[in-house]
Amino acid sequence: MSTIPKVLQDLDQWIRWDVEVGEDGKSRKKPRGKTSENIGQPWSKVADVKIGPEGGIGFRTSGRTIIAVEGVDYTLLAFDLDGCRCPKVGIVKLWATEFLKLWGDSFAEVTPSGTGFRQWALVRDVPERVPTVKVAEAAPEGVDKTPEVETFGTGRNRYVTVTGDKRPGRS
Questions:
Q1: How far is residue 136's CA from residue 117's CA, in Å, rounded to a whole number?
Q2: Contact predicate 100/167, CB 8 Å
Q3: Quick one: which of 32, 119, 120, 140 is 20 to 30 A from 67 by CA?
């Protein structure tokens, strides 16, 4: 997890998740420990989260995470780009490549499924709610996810998975 930016690692907003298979046969990432029911209690720093054999770590995006940079407050957002990457060969859809370019050198990682990216960004002006945007394009061959961009960090009690698996081609 050393690839995760230090500014994120130092926040007490981390949780463990495990994979569970639902009645429909689909795998889901289920948070363990602190959840939305006890969201007011302290969470953990990333180094203190114990990862299970079938899971990973997640970052709490409830409320707004404010980070000051040189005296200016920014809101931390995580953009979840789904259905844009073929995990077998790493080919990325053009719409996702263009989206990721918009954020320059901010931290971007491959999602746990390998079929998308998580783009982290510090933003000045954020609306109360940001809708999920469906992309009018097919997913890569063999990818069973709808191409879309979902935004985390705009006030709802949620968590987002984190891999630390930096986007290929980034230092």
A1: 18
A2: yes
A3: 32
Q: How far apart are CA 18 and CA 148, in angstroms?
A: 24
CA distance 119 to 80: 7
d(CA 117, CA 85): 8
Nearest to 160 by CA among 19, 27, 31: 31
Give the residue from 54, 57, 70 showing the smallest Cα distance to 9: 57
Confidence bin at 171 (pLDDT 50/70/90): very low
93, 140 in Cβ contact below 8 A?
yes
68: number of Cβ within 10 Å: 9
- Residue 52 tokens read as 């299970």
Distances (CA, A) of 145 to 32, 40, 113, 121: 25, 33, 10, 23
CB 2 within 8 A of CB 163: no
Residue with the bigger pLDDT between 34 and 53: it is 53
